[in-house]
Amino acid sequence: MLDDLDFPIEAQRRDLPQHRPADLALLAEQDSPFRLYLHDDALNGMKRHAALDPRNEVGGVLIGRHYQRGDQLAVVVREHLPVPSRSRGAAHFEFDELSTRAILERLDSIPGHVDEYVVGWYHSHVSGRPFMSVHDNILHRDHFGQPWHVSCVIGVEPWARPAGFWRLVDGELEEINGYVVDMAYKLGDLDRHTDYLDAAGLSEDDPWGPALDLPALLRSLGVPPGGRLLGAIPEDRPMPADGGLDTVRFLVQAAQAAAKDPAAVDELSSLSDRLRLARSFDRAMSRRLVGGWIQRRIQVHGHICYAYLPGSSHVIRTRTSDAQIWTLTFTPAPRLLAHSEDGALWALTAQNQIVRFSTEGDGESDEDVELNAVQHVVLHGITGEVRQFMVRPDALWLLTDASWYQVPLTRMDKTVTFGPVVAGVLPAQDCALLDDRGPKAATAAALVGRDGDRLQLWQYRGSGWNCAVEQRLPTPWNEWRPTHAARCGSSVFVLFDDGDLGQLGRFDLHSLDLELHLVRNRGMESSSPITGFCGDGLGRVYAFAEGVLYRV
Question: Which pairing describes strands 532-535 and 541-545: parallel, antiparallel, or unpaired?
């Protein structure tokens, strides 16, 4: 029956304001192909929004309209719309379903006679100069593909450049060199942010914000899983990071448990002792954005940090003193990077090829950064995947899951001669090379390992490993695997794999007594796994998580 019907069906495009841009004559004449106009309240509102959360990126959309005459374009930004998002952190911001709801509700509230629409987006950077990262570039291309779509990056730091703007030109993202600010327009957009959230069915409180996983936190502090304290806490109810009534409830429940059972008193006493050695990871570490929010490893020497994804040829080079960032291309792609005592960069590839670089320039500009490969050597006899790689003055050291490898080095002038590979079985159950580059570095290579419930420090003497010191690990450290270790003065920082974010401990170099537990929990500000950890050759220790470089 339906096959007999014959009538045309034509798609009709909905007539929207952005489909009929106003003539450029409505604005002042311009001699450039593009001009950006910003109302003062919109620009200041974005700055105030960014300042509300200086440790994490925030974002929203730009409301206004565009004008066109021939090849000339102008964009007027009248308002900004801050939007919520569950997908944001110290190094990234994305629009999600919450953001979309807030945007749609806001656009529906614009009177029908006002020809305004989304003309771009903005987000903040918690440190460094405003720039468009690789991830920002992809987001802009995917969602803001018109030449009149504008991207704004707000700098949060007091001495950062306040804002930068970009748009697509012939398919490439280009920075907008200048813009005009209208000082007369007054909207008070930030004051209406609550109305926007209410219209989207959201609360001003941050229901998607951080919430401490209290059971996991207590377990990491040595509270027994089957004990009275953990039994008083519902497993499926996280505690907001700012405490509040849930903190009071826990304290009351803990006190009630202690009153009923002497075992709870012992648990509280032990917990009190552990808390004396505990500090929040976020509070104990200074931070610096280095770009590349995907999971990367790091290699730091002095004030230069290389962040890299094993197997990728693109490496992010950052000068940590002022967060200047460059993207370098390595051929072949490195699996691991390491520095020698003199600051030279070494790379290990997937084919077990060693590449030694000489670094020219001090990194003041892209042209000043030059990595020259001066030596290529292929290592033979390596079995298994190398997970750690270190350069000592007299040898290269490599670790797989079960074995260690030593490659003797002989240095003459600017050349390095490689000796035959020496191999052996790791002396402990879980081992990590100790990164102790620096002015007081030991001449012998060292390992930090866990054997059962004992933490051990091993030193290489002649033809084998000698256990210099060992110490019994408290619970639950004796269940975690040490993955990286770095010396800092008379202490050793060890990163342990706890099956989640990673826990960081500071141990006395001579006794391996636990001195400090830098606690990590998903309800804290830094809630991403640590993917990179190393020393810097100056006695300082660095950790990397989700695009942020942390320094002790």
Answer: antiparallel
Closest C-alpha among 214, 217, 218, 194 to residue 206: 194
Among 181-190, 502-511, 520-529, which stretch is predicted with the lowest mean pLDDT? 181-190
Q: Does residue 146 carry a pLDDT above 60?
A: yes
Q: Is 47 exposed, middle or buried (0-12, 13-18, 19+ CB in 10 A)?
A: middle
Q: How far apart are CA 349 and CA 332, in angstroms?
A: 7
In 3-state terms, what secondary structure has residue 530? coil
| Token pair belonging to 258 | 């202690």
CA distance 447 to 404: 10
Residue 328 pairs with which residues in a beta bridge? 315
How many CB atoms sit inside 10 A of residue 43's CB?
21
- Residues 6+ positions from 92 with CB-CB distance below 8 Å: 57, 133, 135, 293, 546, 547
For 93-156, the DSSP string reads: B---HHHHHHHHHHHHTS-TT---EEEEEEEEESSSS----HHHHHHHHHH--STT-EEEEEE-
Superfamily for the 17-199 domain = Cytidine Deaminase, domain 2 (3.40.140.10)
Helix 262-276 crosses helix 245-260 at what angle (to 10 degrees)? Answer: 130
Q: Are 334 and 318 in contact (CB under 8 A)?
A: no
Give domain limits for the chain: 17-199, 211-276, 281-551
Q: How far is CA 280 from the centre of its chain?
A: 17
Q: What φ, ψ does residue 488 adopt, rounded to 5°?
A: -140, 95
Q: What are the residues whose beta carbons fall under 8 Å from the beta carbon of 127, sequence distance 6 or more?
A: 156, 157, 160, 287, 288, 289, 323
Whether CATH 2.130.10.10 fits 281-551: yes
pLDDT tens, position by position, 405-444: 999 998 766 778 888 999 999 998 889 999 877 555 555 7
CB contact at 8 A, 389 and 395: no
